[in-house]
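Input sequence (220 aa), recorded before submission:
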Amino acid sequence: MLRINLLPKEVLEKRRYEKWYQWVFIGFGGLILFVLLVYAYLLLSAQAKSGDLQALKEQKAKYQAQADAFAIFEKKEDDLAKREQIAQTALANRVNAGKIANEISLVLPDEVWLSTMGISEVDGLTMSANTPQSASESMDIGYKSVAKTLVVLNELPDLADVWLASAANSTFSGFAQQNGQTANPTNIVLFQASAKVVQPAAPVAAPTGSSVPAPPSGTQ
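Predicted structure, token format:
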């Protein structure tokens, strides 16, 4: 039996493509669903990252508050370090009078004793001393001790320009009593000496950023 399709060609073409419409709609719906799933995933990820960021901001604020609380101690530590540096510089540049006095006591001749002594950075050393003199007032005894005292003082590294200000015969009656009786006055040479105190050298600060120079080329 022969079938003859009397429909126009345009209708036939239209019906031929109508069966593909459902697949087109299904594909378009799947694409929309995929896009929605991707959007939901990105939205959830963004919310999670936002939560992490907020947690980090809160942690940062907490640490910042702790740092601000300890900032005053850091400032006090810096002030203390500066004061310590100033104190060390001042101590390094000061004259150690105790050290000088101890050195004098070690080198002073045994027969010489001091009446007064002063040590100053500005005025230097001033001293009044005594040494026994013979009854005949011979210069071979007392004045040799005076000269020896000046020599040993001049050899001390902390003193310079030792000068004898004056020297004269005198008597000394300050010895302790013996058997309840006052000791007889002793002939002495009373002398005054002076000297300059050597100022300590200021410490030289090492330059920052300095490095050891490289050896010349070719050096093994």
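Checked by second reader. The helical segments are 9-18, 21-93, 97-107, 142-154.
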